[in-house]
# Entry
Amino acid sequence: MIDRHGLDGLNLQVVARELHVSAPSLYHHFKDKEEILTEVARRMMEEIGSEQEKWSDDWETRTIELSLATRRVMLRHPNASPLALRFFPRKVMLPAYERSLVDCPYAPEVRMVILEAVEKFTYGTSLFAAAAEAHHIPAMPEIDPAKFPNLAEALSLAPDNDERLHVEALKALLAGFRASFRPLTTTKRKH
# Structure
């Protein structure tokens, strides 16, 4: 319903009508609209986890796969994507965080820095793209090369679609980790 009508079009009467029940019966399952929206955010996070049948065993490749899966889910549900910020279900994310850290190739003292950077990059770029989609506007407006020659040049040389741009930007972030933090040897990693 949020995908079709947006967040503003959602109320308990509409939900009840869609489910062919009376609005008061929803209160047996949810105490209010906020709880419904929290559940929508939780389900979006679960959808990310089921985006692929098999995730890569390589930490960097899997990080890219998860970032792309997040972006794709947010773009599939652009009207609901703001709920990922408003009701960010960290409890749902704990197993994903743990799995990511099990084979993270960096020392434990920098792992939260890495996790934070990847997560904020992923959600920031994904939600920005979803907001543009939800409002039917381009992520980047038309650029006047006379006014913005450097930006126009950068855009003309950038990857040819937003998903590839997302991947290349994430690869640059991952390269920064490799340059800044010395990876552990495989014998030092905890599994």
User: Anything to note?
Assistant: The radius of gyration is 20 Å. The chain has ten helices and no strands. Residues 32-180 form a domain with the Tetracycline Repressor; domain 2 fold (CATH 1.10.357.10). The chain has a mean pLDDT of 88.
